[in-house]
Design brief:
By secondary structure, the protein is mainly α. Helix content is 80%, strand content 0%. The chain has a domain of 69 residues: Fumarate reductase/succinate dehydrogenase, transmembrane subunit (3 helical TM bundles of succinate and fumarate reductases), CATH 1.20.1300.10.
């Protein structure tokens, strides 16, 4: 018979995998992450704005900097963050007004937020790339 005291001392393992979350949970977590990402990226955006508005040479330097593929990928990630944060924010406004609270419609709206934010990112990103 196993020792009960030894069983109680064992660490507890919580499965925090994002794959086990329903769509509304993923939208909620991505909403928070995208908000934090946008807040932290504000410093970089202000740096780019200051560099581009300083002089003609600064503008050309900023243009060359933004044309680098790694920077374009980072800007694409910021674009997705903004679009997801916006779409999820609209969803939460409707939920605050008690629209779409039943489970089926909440799941549909969560999938809609994920699909619309990704689709808009692809459309706008392809146009800007």
């Amino acid at each position: 018979m196993p020792d009960l005291a030894a069983k109680r001392k064992r660490p507890v393992w919580f499965n925090l995998s994002l794959l086990n979350l329903p769509a509304p949970g993923l939208v909620s977590i991505f909403h928070r992450v995208s908000g934090a990402w946008l807040f932290l990226g504000l410093v970089w955006f202000l740096f780019l704005l200051e560099m581009s508005l300083g002089s003609e040479a600064g503008f050309e330097h900023a243009r060359a900097y933004v044309s680098h593929p790694v920077v374009k990928l980072a800007l694409l990630a910021f674009l997705w963050s903004y679009l997801h944060h916006f779409c999820a924010g609209v969803r939460y406004l409707f939920l605050d007004m008690d629209v779409g609270l039943p489970l089926a419609s909440a799941r549909r709206s969560a999938f809609l937020v994920l699909a619309v934010s990704l689709a808009l990112t692809v459309v706008i990103g392809a146009r800007l790339w």
